[in-house]
């Protein structure tokens, strides 16, 4: 469904992506790993056509989106549900209005239908009780769950895109979000999870890409990841084995 064909992207003289090629099919669960600033969010923005590559092609569902107009890109974006890394909620709107925002924007539902739909989505992510709260009254975990509910509101997405969905959360809430993400993909809808938290990535994804210095240093399944000899990946894996040991010694 998503094809990157020799994609180059720079911010000025900062060459973020250098000749990146990969294909992700609609039902795959992919984690894109890499350190801060390696271009993970940039890849998601390119998929949505929020920025355009300097060279190469991006093909979504067989269509080259590289030169599409804003109107045409709207249709492309409807195929995805996205939870952005930052500022996922509008500060001045309460939880209900945050989730309802996309429904008002993209659907022709009545006020009653919107109310019903918002409650249903909040129930799915387990924060229905917070419907009247303002974003600054939510904990980090609740905030993330409302953001996921909001991302589900706009459409019936073919795929989910998550940018650092669990970053900044305590382990319990991170685990709740991981389970929620997996649950939403239960019926075979794929996802791309962008993260530097390998521990959460291995809970969710079945394929792993590792981004480093503008190229994909690694692309493989869990088995291949665990046995990778790439030194950067081993540093990440040490983190996982350390936390496994800590779990074991903790009970
Ligand atoms: N709007 C922008 N203008 C200029 N440079 C940018 C812009 N957005 C990102 N960059 C730069 O592009 C590079 C890649 O950024 P990107 O946000 O894709 O990284 P990331 O892998 O998502 O990092 P993080 O893990 O910190 O979220 C970084 O060097 C960043 O400073
Ligand atoms: Mg990022």
If you had to describe this structure to a student in words, what would you say it looks like?
- This protein has 251 residues and is α/β, with parallel strands linked by helices.
- The protein has a domain of 134 residues: Rossmann fold (3-Layer(aba) Sandwich), CATH 3.40.50.300.
- Helix content is 41%, strand content 25%.
- The protein contains 9 helices and 10 strands.
- The strands form 2 sheets. It has a 6-stranded mixed sheet, sandwiched between helices.
- Helix 6 links the parallel strand 7 and strand 8.
- Helix 3 packs across helix 4, helix 3 runs parallel beside helix 5 and helix 4 crosses helix 5.
- It is globular, with a radius of gyration of 19 Å.
- The model has no long low-confidence stretch (mean pLDDT 89).
- The site of magnesium ion (MG) has 4 residues, from helix 1.
- Adenosine-5'-triphosphate binds next to strand 2 and helix 1.
Order of helices and strands: EEEHEEHEHHHEHEHEEHH
Mean pLDDT: 89
Strand content: 25-35%
Structural class: alpha/beta
User: Within the largest sheet, what's the order of strands?
Assistant: 6-7-8-3-9-10
Write a concise keyword list for the protein shown above.
alpha/beta; 251 residues; 41% helix; Rossmann fold; 6-stranded mixed β-sheet; 9 helices; binds magnesium ion; binds adenosine-5'-triphosphate; 4-stranded antiparallel β-sheet
């Amino acid at each position: 469904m998503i094809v990157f064909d020799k994609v180059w992207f720079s911010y000025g003289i900062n060459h973020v992506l250098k000749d990146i090629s990969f294909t992700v099919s609609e039902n795959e669960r992919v984690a894109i790993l890499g350190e801060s600033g390696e271009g993970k969010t940039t890849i998601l923005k390119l998929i949505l056509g929020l920025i355009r590559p300097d060279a190469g092609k991006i093909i979504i569902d067989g269509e080259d989106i590289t030169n599409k107009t804003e109107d045409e890109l709207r249709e492309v974006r409807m195929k995805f549900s996205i939870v952005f890394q930052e500022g996922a909620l509008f500060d001045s709107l309460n939880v209900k209005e945050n989730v309802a925002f996309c429904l008002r924007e993209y659907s022709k539902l009545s006020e009653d239908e919107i109310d019903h739909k918002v409650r249903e989505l909040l129930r799915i992510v387990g924060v229905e009780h917070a419907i009247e709260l303002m974003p600054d009254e939510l904990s980090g975990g609740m905030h993330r769950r409302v953001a996921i509910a909001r991302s589900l509101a706009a459409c019936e997405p073919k795929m989910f895109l998550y940018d650092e969905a669990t970053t900044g959360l305590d382990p319990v809430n991170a685990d709740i979000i991981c389970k929620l993400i997996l649950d939403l993909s239960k019926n075979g809808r794929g996802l791309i999870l962008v993260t530097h938290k390998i521990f959460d990535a291995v809970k969710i994804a079945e394929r792993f890409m590792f981004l480093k210095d503008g190229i994909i240093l690694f692309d493989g399944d869990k088995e291949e990841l665990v046995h990778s000899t790439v030194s950067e990946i081993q540093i990440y894996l040490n983190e996982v084995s350390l936390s496994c040991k800590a779990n074991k010694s903790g009970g």
